[in-house]
Specification:
Oligomer: homodimer
Mean pLDDT of chain A: 88
Helix content of chain A: 55-70%
Number of strands of chain A: 2
Largest sheet of chain A: 2 strands, antiparallel
Order of helices and strands of chain A: HHHHHEEHH
Number of helices of chain A: 7
Largest interface: A-B, 80 and 80 residues
Structural class of chain A: mainly alpha
CATH class of chain A: Mainly Alpha
Number of domains of chain A: 1
CATH superfamily of chain A: Winged helix-like DNA-binding domain superfamily/Winged helix DNA-binding domain
Chain lengths: 163, 163
DNA sequence: TATTGTTATACTCTATAACTATA
DNA sequence: TATAGTTATAGAGTATAACAATA
């Protein structure tokens, strides 16, 4: 993965950030949310890559573990993933031997999702990696800020305006 | 924009959210950040669409206004946009008559970016629309939570790990 | 040699529509 | 008629590499 030119350009761009003013953006939560999310995804994905997962796949595994037998559309809805896209993501997890799709007994259109024994083992490792990532976020943001941010953002409900 | 089938599916998915547990995700800032960002982008873009802008184009306009004469790579670096992608975004703004690209006198490789008079008018309207959006975010999140979130997240510095 | 802007390419994600099998 | 899962496609975004002009 040679990135001699690209890394240099990015480093230079970062250096110039200090001289750039953000104007009204400083007053907009969306700007900071986007910036933080960008960093969080890169850091979390870098950790999860060691067990061939990423943030999305991990979130799906964790949600299935918390809701055994749930249908694809329920997990997709909870995570804000399109149901069309969920198909390919679950294909990946199934081919990796981490989940099973069984016909639901209540509704034969639906798949009842579940973790395999291997899925449970990987999920346990993933949760350890994500916990380490959370500590990095907390250290970076400051422990007090981290707690405040988590408490404030956890109260946001998105359901009403979906779709 | 007929979305009879899609909207129905999404509404159903949202309804089922209530029954879905999130497990460890409840303790992860990244989950809530992603959820909030998703809502914020949709809401802000819906507002800005009335003047043919979106959040990214608005952020670029505002940054240029705050840093007249800045080079493309400096603006890109401040906003976390790839410099390759910045080219097309600035093409859009230029074709819309909102910005100008002039050769920098200090560094003839670089473009000195600036707003046109029309760009300044549109940016003023955009800032009003975004201010209205921010109020919706604050109302949705609760004013105290909004202030706490803004204060906490504004202290996150991303520079070190770019690239 | 390195950087700015540019073009090109491959891959991922989003949004949407349509199909099947079920309900 | 409507929904769950699936497939397909178009448009956006990301990541990367390479090139010309310039430093």
């Amino acid at each position: 993965m040679s990135k001699s030119a690209g890394a240099g350009a990015q480093r230079e761009a970062a250096r110039q950030d200090a001289a750039i003013r953000l104007g009204e953006l400083e007053n907009h939560l969306g700007y900071f949310v986007r910036r933080l999310q960008h960093w969080i995804f890169r850091d979390a994905n870098a950790g999860l890559a060691t067990i061939d997962l990423d943030v999305i796949l991990y979130s799906i595994l964790e949600t299935i573990a918390a809701n055994p037998g749930a249908a694809q559309i329920a997990v997709a809805g909870a995570l804000g993933i399109e149901r069309a896209r969920m198909v390919a993501l679950l294909d990946d997890l199934q081919q990796a031997g981490l989940i099973v799709r069984e016909r639901s007994e209540q509704d034969r259109r639906a798949h009842a999702l579940g973790l395999t024994p291997r899925g449970r083992v990987i999920l346990k490792k993933a949760n350890a990696l994500v916990a380490a990532h959370e500590k990095r976020v907390a250290r970076r943001l400051g422990v007090d800020n981290y707690r405040r941010a988590l408490a404030a953002l956890a109260q946001f409900e998105t359901d009403e305006t979906r779709g």
